[in-house]
Amino acid sequence: MHHNKWNRASIMPNRPEILAATNNRITFKCNVCGRKDFKQSFPGLIQCNNCDFITANIALNAEDIHTLYGTTYFSGEEYVDYVGDKKIIQKNLCKWLKAIRRYRDSGVLIEIGSAYGFFLEIAEEHFQATGYEISEAATDYSNYAINARTYNTDFLDDANILPNSVDIVVMWDVIEHLPDPAMVIDKVQNVLKPNGHIFITTGDIDSRLAKFQGPSWRMIHPPSHLQYFSKTTLTKLLTSKGFEIVDIKYPGYWRTLGQILHGLFILGNDTNESIIYKLLLRIVPRRLGVYLNTYDIMLVNAKLAEKNKKT
User: Fold this and answer.
1) Which pLDDT score is estimated for 5?
2) pLDDT tens digits, one per residue of 2-16
């Protein structure tokens, strides 16, 4: 993926037309605390001087985003073969569903960034489940190949969701992609019932592995990943919107060897495929599932306490 093609002057919520820097201090509105005082972090990233939240120093317009999440995003860019890896991906999603059912076993569930509907497919056995996905190809697959109800629109753009009508909202590896997470959490707060839950998975930039690898950490690859939360900053964002943290865990993931190699050699790199990568693809069983826990991915469960519900 060639990152330099994206227009860094385009406008998104909470992002000024000019990212002004004076004496290494950058004028930019923080999505977590709202302050406008940032400094340089890793290359391409900036960090809030007040709350330490880290975000990409880049802004994408709507056209950029739809281009970014085209068909190749799921087959060669972010993922080597998302549909082909369905069986392994659903092994992880079954674990997340089990975690949800410890707190709620039925009701209305919304998934933001539902991709090809793999989670919706298994969640429908217990919930009235609906997904929101901006990729047209992924939405079509979800609706027509596996009959999982999915809207090809931004969650923020759907004005038909009634307040206090949803029991569970989930974002699996999605919040890091959002141009304005605070705005999304605001809407989640509005549509959730009192005592409803939000479940989120995302990387922890304060994890030991992220700190050890620095700018080489596999999760750092704008423009698809825009937001880089830590346990602390994600907690601050959620609690500022009326949520109470139930728990934060660091689960392991099942991955195919093909996806692991893709992450090591391709993801976030602007160079062509290496000879080593091509050689390994010939000799390893690409679909073989491997369970790994690098303790740098958070599974966050937060509850919208009735006393904090905005009316």
Assistant:
1) 32
2) 333 333 333 333 443
pLDDT above 50 for 309? yes
Sheet of 45-48, strands arranged across: 21-22, 25-26, 38-40, 45-48, 54-56, 227-228
For 160-170, letters b (16+ CB in 10 Å) and e give ebeeeebbbbb
Looking at per-residue pLDDT, the higher value among 305 and 192 belongs to 192
Single pTM value for the model: 0.88
What homologous superfamily does CATH list for 84-253+296-308? Vaccinia Virus protein VP39 (3.40.50.150)
The residue ranges of every structural domain in the chain are 84-253+296-308, 254-292
Decide if pLDDT at 184 tops 60: yes
Q: What's the chain's average pLDDT?
A: 87
Per-residue 3-state assignment (H helix, E strand, C coil) for the chain: CCHHHCCCCCCCCCCCCCCCEECCEECCCCCCCCCCCEEECCCCEEEECCCCCEEECCCCCHHHHHHHCCHHHHCCCCCCCCCCCHHHHHHHHHHHHHHHHCCCCCCEEEEECCCCCHHHHHHCCCCEEEEECCCHHHHHHHHHHCCCCEECCCHHHCCCCCCCCEEEEEEECCHHHCCCHHHHHHHHHHHEEEEEEEEEEEECCCCHHHHHHHHHCCCCCCCCCCEECCHHHHHHHHHHCCEEEEEEECCCEEEEHHHHHHHHHCCCCCCCCCHHHHHHHHHCCCCCEEEECCCCEEEEEEEECHHHCCC
The percent of residues above 90 in pLDDT, for the chain, comes to: 68
